[in-house]
């Protein structure tokens, strides 16, 4: 059985489509389909059912998954042992909520690429939890640790959030000296039914029941605040990127949350992935501390 065919099988199983797997592996969908068919012929079993939603594993396909993943780990270990991954080259796909992806990971990616010139960093910014079992990402950053799954979890860093507004908004709005004054102001926040993690339910901290302007994207919320549309709870590390936006009511409304690094359990055996995980963790800690220090000076 050809390992490369198993690699393609895993790609299709994780992406649940030929085109999605092809984009990840750098092949066209027709080639992916031929390789899957070749593997099915070699083992004498149908591995996928094609449905309107995509490719679904059959029972035979599901039974092949752990063996294919074992071969994947063995291939990675062999590559490391023979030095083909010297210099930590290749692709690293990082999944993260959009606040982290927009305001932290670009600088972190620069740091990683400076340290490892052969590295290709891909940042996937999505307001949801990533499925590492399907290899949607090599590593993911979460705002809370998962309760299930074969995942290695590492606490990265605490970060802070405060109510903030643009100076233009504050200059033309009623006075804001206490939490009670918020009833006279327009709030910006998350769409309630699109909050994918309870740690992101910030609005309850203000005592205001509903936001006048809402989005599932941190970046959209911040741009609305920057435009002077209202007040919102934002990451301190995002404030340096938005001139004119300042924290308010810092003594009354202050939140602390944590970022967690999530990795597939099988990756613990990979020297490359362990090295990249530690480098990523260190870079994120440094960047949060650097940006929050700028906000501390303002306040």
UniProtKB/TrEMBL annotation:
Signal peptide: none annotated. The keyword DNA-binding applies. Pfam families: HTH_1, LysR_substrate. SUPFAM superfamilies: Periplasmic binding protein-like II (SSF53850), Winged helix' DNA-binding domain (SSF46785). CDD domains: PBP2_LTTR_substrate. One of its GO terms (molecular function) is DNA-binding transcription factor activity. Keywords: DNA-binding, Transcription, Transcription regulation. Residues 1-58 form the HTH lysR-type domain. InterPro entries: LTTR, LysR_HTH_N, LysR_subst-bd, WH-like_DNA-bd_sf, WH_DNA-bd_sf. Belongs to the LysR transcriptional regulatory family. This is LysR family transcriptional regulator. It comes from Paracoccus tegillarcae. The lineage of its organism: Bacteria, Pseudomonadati, Pseudomonadota, Alphaproteobacteria, Rhodobacterales.
